[in-house]
Amino acid sequence: MNWDDAKYFLAVARAGQMLSAASRLGVSQATLSRRITSLEQALDCRLFDRSTGGCILTNNGNMLLEVAERIEAEFINVPTLVRGSQSDVSGTVRIGAPDGFGVAFLSRHLHHLTTENPDLDVQLVPIPRSFSLSQREADIAVMVGRPEKGRLLSRKLVDYSLGLYASKAYLEQSGVPTTLADLSEHKLIGYVEDLIFAPALNYTSDFLRGWHSKIEISSALGQFEAVKSGAGIGVLHDFMALSDESIVRLFPQNSVHRSYYTVWHESMKNTRRIATVAQFLDKIALTNKSLFCPEFANS
Length: 299
Description:
299 residues, alpha/beta, Arc Repressor Mutant, subunit A, D-Maltodextrin-Binding Protein, domain 2, 3 domains, 9-stranded mixed beta sheet, two-stranded antiparallel sheet, 12 helices, elongated
């Protein structure tokens, strides 16, 4: 078996079709097809069910995918292992995070991580609707809720709370709701419903059954800015909103609670830079615990 053929196999398995994989690899579709055929002949089995709609992994293909990803992960870790005797932690680590946590909180702490580990380079990327640690879209991620499938390791990072907010300008113009039922008479802001990628993000019904958003924004930061501009009432992260004097927390006795989890692929479990970043995330989350759940700050 030729490892170069396995790299072509990984590209097709991840893209789901020959044309897209060939484009990413910078080779012709015919060349890619020949390499896959060569690998299937070497293993004496079919790895994909090919059709005009794409390439679907067979059972044998799924088994090879697990093995190939482990080999790939070990190869990626070689530079870190080789340099390990020269530096405590080195290389590049890519952290994936939701925009609320990543941009509004984590980004302002990253310089502490690189100061403590001068040979470490850090990348912070948003977690899209479709996200895969196994495809190296990130080395370690912060996710809302614990992942339920995949070869992933996770641990709870921190609980956080959300509440209802409106700008002072909006309330002066539209009035202050006195009960949660009054929300139905106001302009509401929420996520684009059919793009909600995690069940934990569907929390508007915790405040009002039948919640209908006049404005839908698939970004926690976007919703925050919309509420701040006076566009309506929305559910915002307390750690983002409480310190802003231009907006008001409505019904402070009503909150919803969710949890962030630190997640990484099991193939990275022995990687020193991943362990270092996970420990750093734990430290800053613990230090700022009262920011994430302010109602429990004195408990």
